[in-house]
Amino acid sequence: MKRAGLNILVATALSLGLFAFGSIKQGGIQGKVTPAEGAKEVLAIAGTDTLRSQINNGAFVFSNVKKGTYMVWVKANAPYKDISVENVAVADSATTDIGEIKLMQ
Predict the structure, then answer these.
(1) What is the pLDDT of residues 12-24, one digit of tens each?
(2) DSSP-derived secondary structure letter, 1
(3) Contact between residue 53 and residue 88 where contact means Cβ atoms under 8 Å apart
(4) Could you tell me if residue 19 is inside a domain?
(5) Quick check: is 1 in a domain?
(6) Residue 84, Cβ neighbours under 10 Å: how many?
(7) N or C: which end of the chain has fewer CB within 10 A?
């Protein structure tokens, strides 16, 4: 009986611990590319992780991004040139706005 109670207590503690870690909200990255028609694709890269975002009228949003430092890379349509933004810091439960990214020809 004593052992069964201990097993239940341990199982409950483990469940609560996993729930607490699962409730941490991840961050995000947002910005805008101008001119909008110049942007082909936007990527966020950290180590071996690569995220892709849809572009809507030049605006992009990366959601559920793990905490860390990213490079945001805009792949451009000709005649524009690719551009990157380095050292974009993402914190849990926060969206980092990197503002406007202007493509050059």
Answers:
(1) 555 555 455 556 7
(2) -
(3) no
(4) no
(5) no
(6) 13
(7) N
Reduce the DSSP state of residue 17 to 3 states and report it.
Answer: helix
Coil, helix or strand at residue 37? helix
Q: Domain range spanning residue 60?
A: 25-102
pLDDT tens-digit readout, 26-65: 999 999 999 999 999 999 999 999 999 999 999 999 999 9
For 58: left if phi > 0, alpha if psi spans -120 to 50, otherwise beta; the answer is left
Q: Which residue has the tokens 């004593």?
A: 2
Give the domain CATH number at 95: 2.60.40.1120
CA distances from 60 to 1, 14, 19, 21, 72 (A): 58, 38, 31, 28, 11
Spatial separation of the C-alpha atoms in residues 15 and 41, rounded to whole Å: 40
Phi/psi for 74 (5° steps) reads -100, 115
Neighbouring-strand partners of residue 5: none
- Number of domains into which the chain is organized: 1
